[in-house]
Amino acid sequence: MDAKQKDEFTRAVYDLVMLVPPGRATSYGAIAAGIGHANLSRMVGRAMSGCPEGIPAHRVVNSQGVLTAAGCFSKPGRMQALLEAEGVEVASNRIRNWRRVFWDPVKEL
DNA sequence: GGTCTGACTAAAT
DNA sequence: GATTTAGCCAGAC
Questions:
Q1: Rg value, chain A, Cα
Q2: Is-above-0.85 flag for pTM?
Q3: Which of A3, A40, A72, A108 has a CA 20 to 30 Å removed from the CA of A47?
Q4: Which nucleotide is nearest to A66 (CA to C1')?
């Protein structure tokens, strides 16, 4: 059940990320906790490494609100532009008012 | 099978 | 806010 569980985990991550409302963002740890794997925060990033079209990866940042997923986009700074377009204030690859923008799937969902 | 690295987190300093 | 320490799991070598 190795490959199957991995697929389930990955699918759950994508599904949760797509549920993130516009103008908001969540963290890898929050997603991991939302799917029942609070300690697999790193695996969330590993699963998101695919970054398939349709997944708003720019809404997924680390616990500090830092845009660690910038490498997923064609050019650096693209992620910040997308977030700003949704009303999220970003500075130096870091989300301002992170506490206000943060979306917790466990609490909100 | 062992070791290193990494889109991570939380706590302590 | 920045840095360090320890814990976590999967993939590459």
A1: 13
A2: yes
A3: A108
A4: B7
Considering any atom of strand B, list protein residues whose CB lies within 7 Å: A 27-30, 41-42, 44-46, 48-51, 57, 60, 62-64, 68-69, 71-72
Residue ranges near strand C (C-beta within 7 Å): A 6, 39-43, 46
Reading the block at residue A60, the tokens are 């997924």
CA of A63 to C1' of C2 (A): 15
Point out the nucleotide closest to A3 (alpha carbon to C1′).
C10
pLDDT band at A29 (very low <50, low <70, confident <90, very high): very high
* Residue A38 DSSP SS3: coil
φ/ψ bin of A93: left (φ > 0), alpha (ψ from -120 to 50), beta (otherwise): left
User: Cα(A103)–Cα(A105) distance, rounded to whole angstroms?
Assistant: 6
